[in-house]
Design goal:
The complex is a heterodimer of chains A (249) and B (325). Chain A is α/β, with parallel strands linked by helices. Chain A has helices at 40-47, 79-82, 89-94, 104-117, 133-145, 163-180, 191-197, 228-231, 233-247; strands at 2-11, 14-24, 29-33, 55-60, 63-64, 72-75, 151-155, 183-188, 200-204, 212-217. Chain B is 74% helix and 0% strand. Chain B has helices spanning 6-17, 23-33, 60-91, 99-110, 122-155, 157-172, 179-186, 190-214, 218-226, 231-267, 275-284, 288-320. The longest helix of chain B has 37 residues, at 231-267. The chains are: A alpha/beta (249), B mainly alpha (325).
């Protein structure tokens, strides 16, 4: 359970988040939507413990977040920068396993297993920059999943991919969520994406001092499909509701 | 310029090809990445393009171009030597012996020894090897100290702010001016010479490493924090590799400074061997042929050492293709 209680965050005098209260139950896929500059990324970085000086309290499974929690993983939007280009794909994915103290062979085997799971079987020995954007983001997802995190934070992970690659990765994420059952906080500015992916959508107001303006459960069938789900009347209605909240109408 | 590995040049070539490669590629594509991967999205189709998809014909012109380039480079050098030879022969001055004579002298002096000494003469063992040894020791110490201190200075904002003026000052002092100081401290001999090399060559590596370590991508540092990398792992997997191009830029400068200081410190009275000693010794005997031979040897050494360093750099840096961040 992730709990934010009256959380505030500021850069100098610039108040980015103000009085934000939010609870994410275990296993939920929560999408956070808001106009650009509303502090979505700041919210994510704060939860990740990367900005330890915040107001209010954040607890993960009852423990206050001070620094990066143990069983947490993050996928950033900029895969080209987030992956280490001098390491091979396999070395990138195996990197988080070092602190588990596994022997080298087991780290490699585990990395290969996760790579196969995200649909990258023959790329282990290549370097990230030899792959397309979609494949690179798959590598980043594999690296995030390899330690079986209980909380996965994603910061507009598909924002710079083309439409079809993005849909494939959305379905990959849903599949991962279904089987692993991790709690996922997914930040996006794409209203369609938030409704398609989320169990719940939270809309933040434009900054400074963003607040939650809409907290909406998404009651769509568990198994979703890019074509049929997006055509459902409920989907369209939810999308309009989120859209209105984002545009503040 | 050649790329270090076939895979790199293959995939670089294939990026451009991906859009137009036609159906063969898409078959390979869906086999590889599983059914979930699109074969469409034409802008980004380089998903799973194998280097082998690039027709080898495409690489040929590149290879022949680089051969042509090398030939051209050596042609200019050969022409320059030929002009020198003719001019020196025509003029007949004792100060400017023709290059053929210098080359013969270089061989007679240093490279006409027995096979079991790899053709090195006693003079080479007595003069060239000590010089190289001092230079290697000085350069190695400067590199290790420069990289270690550079990382320390570059990774701490406070240390950087405090040390930067000192470093800029240290760098601005002309290195040979330090030699008299070390003569006083160490007296003449190898310790003085090595100290001169180290204290001149350390600054470029140190400053460049510090800049490189300071410029570590903040997002990659956040990734390191999220992955809970230990400080040692962070250094090994993030900071050193990302600073590597800058480190090598510093090492190249340091290498040429090491050569300069090696010769300069041997020019001083009190030295008993070394290439610099050969130079002053020959000069005092008005043996200009040997002076010229030493100059040619130094030029060749500098060229070879630099080429060696570039080869190492290409292997190490090319692997990570230092991305434009």
């Amino acid at each position: 359970m992730l709990r934010l209680d009256t959380v505030g965050q500021h850069y100098g005098d610039h108040q980015v988040l103000h009085d934000l209260t939010l609870t994410v139950p275990d296993g939920q896929l929560l999408c956070v939507v808001g106009p650009s500059g509303c502090g979505k990324s700041t919210l994510l970085r704060t939860v990740a413990g990367l900005l330890p000086a915040y107001d209010g309290t954040i607890t993960l499974d009852g423990t206050p977040v001070r620094g990066v929690p143990d069983n947490l993983a993050v996928v950033f939007q900029d895969y080209a920068r987030s992956l280490y280009p001098w390491l091979t794909v396999r070395e990138n994915v195996a990197l988080p396993l070092r602190r588990r103290g596994l022997p080298r062979a087991e780290r490699r085997a585990e990395a290969d297993r996760i790579l196969a799971r995200v649909g990258l079987t023959d790329t282990a020995r290549r370097h990230p920059w030899q792959l397309s954007g979609g494949m690179q983001q798959r590598v980043a997802i594999a690296r995030a999943l390899v330690c079986r995190p209980s909380l996965l934070l994603m910061d507009e992970p598909f924002g710079s991919l083309d439409a079809q690659t993005r849909e494939d990765l959305e379905d990959l994420l849903l599949e991962v969520h279904r089987t692993d059952g991790a709690t996922i906080v997914f930040v996006t500015h794409d209203i369609d994406e938030s409704v398609y992916l989320g169990d719940r959508v939270v809309v933040l107001s434009p900054g400074p001092g963003s607040k939650v303006v809409l907290d909406l459960p998404v009651e769509l069938p568990g198994t979703r499909d890019q074509i049929t789900t997006r055509g459902l009347a409920e989907f369209v209605a939810l999308r309009s509701e989120v859209g209105r909240a984002v545009r503040n109408r | 310029m050649k790329r270090p590995r076939g895979a790199a040049s293959g995939s670089a070539g294939s990026d451009g090809l991906a859009g137009s490669a036609g159906p063969a590629e898409h078959v390979g594509l869906s086999e590889r990445s599983g059914s979930s991967e699109p074969s469409g999205s034409p802008g980004r189709t380089s998903e799973a393009v194998r280097p082998s998809f690039v027709p080898s014909l495409l690489r040929r012109p590149l290879a022949s171009a680089s051969v042509r380039h090398a030939l051209l480079r050596w042609t200019v050098l050969a022409l320059a030597v030929a002009v020198w030879q003719l001019a020196a022969r025509a003029h007949g001055s004792v100060y400017f012996p023709p290059p053929a004579e210098i080359a013969r002298h270089v061989r007679d002096l240093w490279f006409s020894g027995p096979v079991r000494h790899v053709f090195l003469t006693e003079a080479a063992v007595a003069d060239v090897l000590p010089s190289l040894g001092r230079m290697a020791a000085g350069f190695a110490l400067a590199a290790v100290a420069g990289i270690a201190l550079g990382v320390a200075v570059g990774r701490s904002r406070r240390a950087y702010a405090l040390c930067n003026p000192v470093l800029q000052f240290a760098r601005a002092v002309p290195p040979p001016a330090l030699v008299p100081l070390f003569v006083v401290i160490f007296d003449f001999g190898t310790p003085m010479q090595i100290a001169s090399i180290v204290f001149s060559a350390v600054w470029p590596v140190l400053i460049n490493t510090a800049e490189g370590a300071r410029d570590t991508d903040p997002l990659r540092l956040e990734v390191a924090a999220v992955l809970h990398l230990t400080p040692a792992e962070r250094l090994r997997f993030l900071i050193l590799p990302s600073a590597l191009p800058r480190i090598f830029a510093g090492l190249r400068l340091s290498l040429s400074l090491s050569l300069i200081l090696m010769v300069f410190s041997e020019l001083l009275p009190g030295t008993a061997n070394g290439i610099g000693f050969t130079l002053t010794d020959a000069q005092s005997r008005s043996d200009l042929l040997t002076v010229w031979a030493a100059l040619v040897l130094l030029g060749a050494l500098g060229y070879l050492l630099n080429t060696g360093l570039l080869t190492v750099e290409k292997r190490l840096v090319g692997r990570g293709r230092t991305t434009t961040v």
